[in-house]
Write a structure and sequence with these properties.
The complex is a heterodimer of chains A (380) and B (401). With 380 residues, chain A is of the alpha+beta class. Chain A is built from eleven helices and ten strands. Helices cover 51% and strands 16% of the residues of chain A. Helices cover 43% and strands 15% of the residues of chain B. The chains are: A alpha+beta (380), B alpha+beta (401). The complex binds flavin-adenine dinucleotide (FAD). Flavin-adenine dinucleotide binds next to strand 1 and helix 11 of chain B.
Chain lengths: 380, 401
């Protein structure tokens, strides 16, 4: 495992940075929020990103992808994270897309993936529930036997880009109690399936999330993703991939928030000197710099470990998320504090970084959850 | 690649043939190992032939030029040697400030005569070196040092005292910073001088440390005559040399503590978790104390992230990139981490972590407790953590003074 960007990745990083600067300033996020945009992102930009080949980065060539893995996708997500671009990489490429790639039948893959890679179809994964917190195996949604198929009943929360997805992979229980490890099955649904209802949710980061209500949605054997009853392991692998993705995004956002704050420390004067000359602030800035550098190493390692399928890949994913969660919040909080009063205003952009940082921190498990997982996987 | 494989095979064969049985698997604690010098003691005695054989091949200083007694190995070959030593569980034949600090400095700044005189002796472990930087009134503000060097013909006459000189009582030579021009700006009147500690007028007295047994000394100079040709770099130009040596020292400290922590979280075996299981027991597969368990995980995560950062810096260097900003964090992070880790080990042991000596405490318990106390100095020696953060703020982040 080499912790250095390849030439292809360097090029990708540069293209993505230029693109983000030109097409996706933070002011766009504000405009989407203020307009209460139904999608919460720009479909036009999404298609452009697909044309640039980014949507297909972690998919094999047979589906039109570039087969550049998570280590390739990470550099794009980092660049987009810098300007808080809300386009649906997590939902479509990482959650829904990877669920089908890792668990889907040939038919499911050929139905969804080529169009997904072209930017023509959006997908998502409905896994989280009111009581599940970060426990992927806590599933109350039931798949009840009905003839040769099932009927899905239950409710999912904060489904990413739920209201605009063309397809939803739903996690349900074909057997077992709410917290049983086995008995979990994934199903692929179309958005127009009878009995499926969606309601937009508004979180602090103003991205698109939805409540998903399943009121007896009929599914058959052809809709099962992976093996019946053994969806728990598949789900964990999918969420691990998405976790690497959100970590890369967090790395970009925290780097940007930190650099903006650093700029302010050099420019803002009080007591006749730049505030960045005060040691109380200097040392805290240096600590943040250290945390960000450690995050970068951890994110690069996690992406490569998953791509290479190494044995302790899951542990490295937890390492990355634990550190990124803590560092993102540290940097965001310090950024507001070091901006003083102006940092508290909605007019200033730094607040957008705090809001997204909090959402990202509590998505796919916070730092404490991932330390617990690290210990568990380490046998203690 | 094939050449490297062949080098590996030959190295393995040579090591197997030449490493004495008695030293295999020897765990060297901090301050342990062979430090060389005129008063060297070899524990166990087989360390002596081990040193001699390795020195003969130049493998006490694997990457230094062969003409001065080094091994002339490439970085890749040196890594292979290191891996093979680890694989066969063999201790390093020699350690000390000669290899880690003054040697690299002389290779950079020394003149030909100085290199020929000192480097081979360092490689063979014949001369032990200590560091005379700090003074009672010059610590973090090192450039304010006052030990005087008055010119008298071909000699400097040295007067003053150095403090916190680690291992001065066991060392043969000292590299010292002295004020050769009291009228110049403080950084511009300093000379970097090599001093034979057998010179008349040098005296050493030990200072006790909070961890007990002390390697720490005060070193006094009373009219000590030192030839002017023992200056490294320009006369009055010692500050440049001094700073470069601090760079080597910080790398070494980061290496030692980063390296010591290795194993934590890598693979499945966890040193901290095993220790904790001994003292805290087990509750359904998880450690008995959920709070300490979380702290152990946190410590391991930080260790792993640190090692990955060291690896990232190395991989970038191998790929031909300029050194990035990440290396500036090594000293402060590695030492703060070692402080946390040693403290955690004491807290895991609970009341058993309180032993100073004698009945009711196992040797390794006492060792860990003293290690915890000694580690408090990690964030002071070689430039304090606060000074490291100042350097990052200024050099890396460009924050104003
Ligand atoms: C175990 C050990 C071994 C050592 N071995 C050697 C040796 O072999 N040779 C040698 O020459 N020296 C040695 N030293 C000395 C060491 O380099 C000094 O102790 C160190 O540089 C700090 O200097 P000081 O002790 O005078 O503390 P001071 O400089 O007085 O610092 C006291 C406190 O003030 C803080 N401080 C000082 N300046 C600033 C600033 N500008 N901004 C913010 N905070 C500041 C420091 O961080 C520290 O917390 C050793 C020290 C230890 C602990």
């Amino acid at each position: 495992m080499q912790l250095v960007l390849t030439e292809d990745q360097e090029l990708l990083a540069k293209t993505a940075a230029d693109f983000a600067a030109e097409h996706s300033p933070v002011s766009r996020v504000r405009a989407l929020r203020d307009a209460d945009d139904a999608d919460g992102f720009s479909r036009k930009l999404w298609r452009q990103m697909a044309e640039l080949g980014w949507v297909g980065i972690p998919f094999p060539e047979e589906f039109g992808g570039a087969d550049m893995g998570l280590s390739g996708l990470s550099v794009v997500l980092e660049a987009l994270g810098r300007t808080l671009a809300p386009e649906p990489f997590l939902s479509t490429v990482l959650l829904g897309g990877q669920a089908l790639l890792l668990g889907g039948s040939e038919g499911q893959k050929s139905e969804w993936l080529p169009k997904l890679v072209e930017g023509e179809r959006l997908l998502t994964l409905a896994y989280q529930e009111r009581r599940s917190r970060y426990d992927l195996r806590c599933v109350a949604t039931r798949a009840e036997r009905d003839g040769s198929g099932w009927r899905l009943r239950g409710e999912k929360i904060q489904v990413l880009d739920g209201t605009c997805a063309d397809g939803i992979v739903v996690v349900a229980r074909t057997s077992g109690e709410e917290r049983a490890a086995d008995g979990i099955t994934l199903f692929a649904l179309r958005r127009d399936a009878p009995g499926l209802r969606l309601e937009r949710q508004h979180r602090v980061d103003s991205r698109n999330t939805a409540l998903v209500f399943l009121d007896g949605v009929a599914v058959g054997a052809e809709d099962v993703v992976g093996a019946e009853g053994r969806g728990g392991d598949l789900l964990e692998r999918v969420v691990d991939r998405a976790t690497v993705g959100i970590c890369a995004e967090m790395l970009g956002s925290m780097s940007e928030a930190f650099e903006r704050t650093l700029g302010y420390l050099k420019q803002r004067e009080q007591f006749g000197v730049p505030i960045g000359s005060f040691q109380a602030l200097k040392h805290r800035a240096a600590q943040q710099f250290i945390e960000i550098e450690l995050c970068r190493s951890a994110v690069m390692a996690a992406a490569r470990a998953v791509d290479d399928g190494v044995e302790d890949a899951a542990r490295l994913v937890s390492l990355a998320k634990a550190r990124c969660s803590d560092a993102a919040i540290l940097v965001a909080d310090e950024s507001i504090q070091m901006h003083g009063g102006i940092g508290m205003t909605d007019e200033h952009e730094i607040g957008f970084y705090l809001k997204r940082a909090r959402v990202a921190e509590l998505t796919f498990g916070d730092a404490a959850y991932h330390r617990d997982r690290w210990a568990r996987l380490g046998g203690y | 690649m094939a050449e490297l494989d062949e080098f590996r095979a030959q190295t393995r064969q040579w090591l197997k043939a030449n490493a004495p049985e008695a030293i295999t698997g020897l765990a060297l604690t901090e301050g342990g190992g062979n430090w060389g010098g005129r008063r060297a003691t070899f524990e166990p005695p087989e360390m002596k032939p081990w040193l001699e054989r390795m020195a003969e091949r130049g493998w006490t200083a694997p990457t230094w030029p062969r003409e001065y007694g080094g091994g002339g190995l490439s970085a890749a070959e040196a890594k292979v040697l290191q891996q093979e030593l680890a694989r066969l569980r063999l201790p390093l034949p020699l350690t000390g400030f000669g290899l880690t600090m003054i040697g690299p400095t002389l290779l950079h700044f020394g003149n030909e005569e100085q290199k020929r005189e000192h480097i081979p002796k360092i490689c063979r472990g014949e001369i032990r070196w200590c560091q005379g930087y700090s003074e009672p009134n010059a610590g973090s503000d090192l450039a304010s040092l006052q030990t005087r060097a008055d010119r008298d013909g071909d000699d400097f006459v040295i007067n003053g005292s150095k403090v916190w000189t680690s291992y001065a009582d066991l060392s043969d030579w000292i590299f010292a910073l002295v004020r050769s021009d009291p009228k110049a700006k403080k950084q511009e009147g300093i000379t970097f001088l090599l001093i034979d500690m057998d010179s008349p007028g040098v005296s050493v007295s030990p200072i006790g440390l909070i961890s007990g047994k002390s390697p720490f000394c005060e070193t006094r100079f009373d009219d000590v005559r030192v030839p002017v040709r023992n200056a490294v770099g320009a006369i009055h130009g010692g500050w440049t040399v001094a700073k470069a040596l601090l760079g080597f020292e910080r790398n070494m400290i980061a290496e030692v503590f980063g390296g010591q922590a290795r194993g934590g979280g890598q693979g499945r075996g966890s040193v901290l978790a095993e220790l904790a299981r001994e003292y805290l027991g087990d509750a359904g597969g998880a450690l008995g104390d959920p709070v300490l368990r979380d702290e152990i995980a946190r410590c391991e995560l930080d260790e792993r992230a640190f090692h990955l950062t060291v690896q990232r810096a190395r991989d970038a260097a191998k790929a031909g990139h300029q050194p990035g900003p990440e290396s500036s964090l090594f000293k402060v992070y590695a030492t703060e981490l070692n402080k946390r880790r040693t403290e955690l080990m004491v807290r895991i042991a609970g009341p058993h972590g309180l032993g100073w000596q004698g009945a009711g405490f196992a040797d390794d318990e006492i060792g860990r407790t003293r290690g915890w106390l000694r580690a408090r100095g990690n964030s002071i020696e070689g430039g304090t953590s606060e000074i490291q953060l100042n350097i990052i703020a200024k050099r890396v982040l460009g924050l104003p003074d």
